[in-house]
Design a protein that fits this description.
Elements: E1 2-7, H1 11-23, E2 27-33, H2 36-46, E3 50-54, H3 62-71, E4 79-84, H4 92-98, E5 102-105, H5 110-121, H6 129-141, H7 159-169, H8 174-181, H9 185-199, H10 204-213
Parallel strand pairs: 1-2, 1-3, 3-4, 4-5
Helix pairs in contact: 2-3, 3-4, 7-9, 7-10, 8-9
Amino acid sequence: MIRVAVADDQPLVRAGLRAMLDLAEDLAHVGEAADGRAAVDLARGARPDVMLMDVRMPVLDGIEATRRITSDPATAAVKVVVLTTFDVDEYVYAALRAGASGFLLKDAPPERVFDAVRVVAAGEALLDPGVTRRLIAEFARRPAARQPGQLPELRQLTSREREVLALVGRGLSNTEIAGQLVVSPATAKTHVARILAKLQARDRAQLVVTAYESGLIRPGGP
């Protein structure tokens, strides 16, 4: 059973998500919060597997709440999925940096919500295609701060691991990476696992940030 908590300042949104979660046999709603500080307290008390977190909340915004949850050893195992709409895309990059495992659009249908929770609970990153396009556009607007390989942590990676990291940064799944490199999906999965361990990254969402920030890949590049 995957334990899920909801943090949103809108009662109707919380009620809607709670009703959705009640429809899935493998998901359990374990609590909700109306502001960011309450979300942090909820994470500490209920220890959900996944928290659906709104960005714009009173007392403490969702990005800072996410940062506190993911940086605290007591709650670091809680995976955060940020609830977003297209008018808050400026927060996407900041939320990823804060440790969010992905994004879910607020108008997503029930099956999409269920899949999102399951994907993140399994340790994968969730980047909605529409949000991913805007994330890449945000990187495109930023001046290049590094040359490829300047991030010290990347020196730990083999040439094949850097190649895999670049493909993760492009949003490819393990199966797609396997097809691109002509290896088995199991081999691709092993490469990703080793990269996560070497870079001490929480999940693939952090690998996407690393791939761009390090200069390993650039928006629109090969």
